[in-house]
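does this look right to u?? pyridoxal-5'-phosphate version
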Amino acid sequence: MKDSLVYLDNNSTTPVDPKVLDAMLPYFTQHYGNAASRSHAFGWIADEAVKRSRAMIAKFIGAEDNEIIFTSGSTEAINLAIKGVAEAYHAKGKHIVTIATEHKAVLDTCKHLESLGHEITVLPVLEDGMIDLNVLEKAIRNDTILVCAMLANNETGVILPIDQIAEIVHAKNSLLFCDATQAGGKIRTDVYDLKADLLCLSAHKMYGPKGVGMLYVRRKNPRVTLIAQIDGGGHERNLRSGTLNVPGIVGFAKACELAGEELMEMNGTISILRTRLEQAMCDLGASINGNIKHRLPNTSNLTFHGKKADEIMKAIPSVAMATGSACSSALPEPSHVLTAMGLKEKDAYASIRFSLGRF
Ligand code: PLP
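got this back:
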């Protein structure tokens, strides 16, 4: 049965690359020490592996080793970034700006802070999923402590001009958090180019294991301060306590190394396949959602006018595809991303996301 299945849901999660698994395996059974154990070789070996991995991941995003905080994935990194900044900068202000098409991990974290007395501005998007930079500029105030903008949208693949957004945010003396989860391994995520102050990645979106991710926290120009959201043994420079997931971190680093090596080559092949898929679907009357110029090479969000996405998916169970994001696909509501882009509810219900992958 499984051999006849077609997996077109790589934005939800990717298979682990066999080379990633090979790198991880010794850290389950052979080098199983706790990276925080300072008194014996088991701990030193694990700590060495974490150090090596941290350097590989830092290199992948153009950061310094000590700017990487390991987490359990992007949802946790997002919570640490937004809540951590909100707590650390409360004397400066309580205003945060985000965008209507952000992932629920960002929007719900902001909602939580709103319930605690923060003020949240949610910027609208244009029909193609991009934002109006003038609207962003006007929304940032003296008491704005953080702007949250994703690099690539998980549902449409639309890529925002993070470097331009960063310039506006910095001119207004605020900080920029960039959710680069979907961009990781698909397009460049160099923090120097993007000029982001905080940025997250998740291993399972880029052929690494589930349950591990990271938050980049800028240390210079400006140095970003955070308040930890998980207290305990003071791991990760007191910013995220908890025993490190050594095999996961090793796998994450290997996934970054492979992505760095194979990025351009993979993108070419994947986007050719995506074009073939879209041409075939558009010949049947489907239309593409999102800016087609500024888009991830693997993602295609299509509206099948007059149809219902869940019925299409039920009729073709051998193809794995998605409506909305996996994290919210249990909800019967239409995609908040597509409705924010101005799609009518019936068109949002008629839309399917196909996300192709390396395998
Ligand atoms: N941000 C984006 C854009 C995502 O697509 C996802 C996962 O779907 C997340 C955050 C959450 O990532 P994780 O599964 O690592 O918690």
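The chain has two domains: 2-15+263-355, 18-256. idk if thats expected tbh
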